[in-house]
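Deviation from plan, reported transparently: iron/sulfur cluster complex.
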Amino acid sequence: MLTSFGVTEGIVVDTHVSRVSQRLGLTEHKKPEDIEKDLMAALPKNRWEPFSLMMIRHGRYVCTARHPKCVACVLNRICPSAFKFT
Ligand code: SF4
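Because the crystal trials were delayed, the predicted structure below was used instead.
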């Protein structure tokens, strides 16, 4: 997510966004720039910023790297990776 003066030009792909996007099947790529392209193609531009923030928080508190909390995750019915890490 690149936002300056109220203009959003991209989606931040940090370690959380990268991991959660892959687990949710939103991308098969590994490189942040490729993941960003997939996410930008899937979402309307006005959702890029809130999507980034939600993914970061989801990755930080629910879909954590080592022990994702799939039982408590609101996405566990649609996530192709649900319960694969437990
Ligand atoms: S169901 Fe599990 S793997 Fe899928 S997004 Fe939720 S916490 Fe992550």
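The chain has three helices and two strands. We consider this an acceptable substitute for the interim report.
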